Amino acid sequence: MSSPRPGFRPGFRWLATLARCGRVARASLTLLSAVLLLAGAADAKEVWTGGDGASSLDVGGFYKALGAGLLVPEGLSKGRAALAATLDQARQSLPPEQAALIPSLEPMPTSAALSSQLARLQARLLWGEHLDFNAAWELGATVASHASFASGAALGGSPVAGPAQASRRLVDFDPVLASSGTFLLQHNLDRLSVKLSLGKLDLTVGRQVFSWGSGRLWNPTDLLSPFAPTDFDREVRKGVDALRLSVPLGTTGLLDALWLPQPRAADQGGVVRGQLNVLGCDFSLSAAKYVSDLVVGADFSGDVGPLGIHGEAAYTLWVAGWGEGPLSVNEKFLRAVGGLEWRPLEKLVLLGEYYFNGFGASRPDQYLSKMTSDRVARGEIFGSGRHYLGIAANVAATDLLGISLTSLVNLQDPSAMLVPVLEYALEQQVLLRVGGFVPIGKRPDPTALQRLTPADVLGNSEAFRSATSSLGLGSEYGASAAGLMVQLAVHR
């Protein structure tokens, strides 16, 4: 048997943390039972049909249970523990009123486990040919062995970065129903929209979903509800609040105009996007204002012989001063994707994609500022570096079994993340999904954090600023957690 790769901690700690997680997971399952009963009642998707056949009500939903075990890079855990201890020592040397100014930091374990359950109810009402009403609501519970992982943010990403939070909603309720450190219960009104068809015009108002761009792993032009390249469950996108007017352009084109309302007038946004098919290729152009950004984008997709080709690019200008004074451009960057798809066999699809991220940093010691930026927190941008290569293979082994392997490579570190996924249909409406995250790359070095003293904290020394600005990161994916996940999904 080969020896384990350095940086991994195999063994029985996963079993112990999974056991602790399982005891509380049973309580969260009980808490969700009422929702599951409602979802089960929607066994027949079409629950009502009008006498004229033009009106109908469809109700459905799903229940998903996921269990995961994680291994955090040891250097990241040791560095955080050392920093937490130094901060505590610095606070103890100060009067209470001054000690309160120094933040506290909780140590992070090197292994963790979590269990989550998600129930979703959704409905669609069609009233004649002119009215289309959509609604969807989710209730989810997560139990983790450590509070740092209760949000699930480390699944496929770095434990350094916080969970992405969509900010494209005008009004919303508090998503957290209950929270107690390692337990988190949330709900989400993910869809609530009305679509009016007025001749050749479609007007949609409310919380809705958009799926733009031609990229398979990265979508620079989709800032509203993109998937992360490491997402192994891509069934539901995040809903955003918008007013959308769609007008057909001939037989193959479409013009979309969006208003993205926000509570603060200066944050109001909008998008104009046109798409057209020419000589068998799809093209689109877009211009938008997102929060404080002006973004111009374009994408295309088509076929050249046996190869499918696609490309996508977005140029962003960060403009400061909206609603406050003279406008000024503080930052500008380009993000672009180009890729090829090939089907050498009927059941095998291969994908290669290059991604340039002009927002990213050129050195690992600058990654932390990108990981904790507002753009990453809003779920707009994925990746802290600049040059990436994505390679994916999808195999339909049988009618019931599908296997995929995605490799994301940061070319400048270099480092990589491997995402293998196996999907097996147990029944027509029951899917078992097994996946993992295998990070490859230089691990974080905790030495600089371990050398800090309380004097460095109190004096805000150069050593303190340098160590805390990088956390010893040596590569992007090398700072990510390794993980193994099992998900069971039941659709009704």
Can you give me a brief rundown of this structure?
This protein is an alpha+beta fold. The chain has 9 helices and 20 strands.
Write up this protein.
The chain has an 18-stranded antiparallel beta barrel. The chain has nine helices and 20 strands. The protein is 16% helix and 46% strand. By secondary structure, it is α+β, with helices and mostly antiparallel strands. The protein is globular and about 80 Å long. It starts with 12 loop residues before the first helix and ends with a strand. The N terminus is likely disordered. Strand 17 and strand 18 form a beta hairpin.
Distance between the termini: 44 Å
Tell me how many strands there are: 20
Radius of gyration: 24 Å
Envelope shape = globular
Assign the structural class, choosing from mainly alpha, mainly beta, alpha/beta, alpha+beta, or little secondary structure: alpha+beta
> What is the count of helical runs?
9
The H/E string reads: HHEEHHEEEEEEEEEEEEEHHEEEEHHHE
Percentage of residues assigned to helices: 10-25%
What distinguishing features does this structure have?
18-stranded antiparallel β-barrel, alpha+beta, globular, 9 helices, 492 residues, disordered N terminus
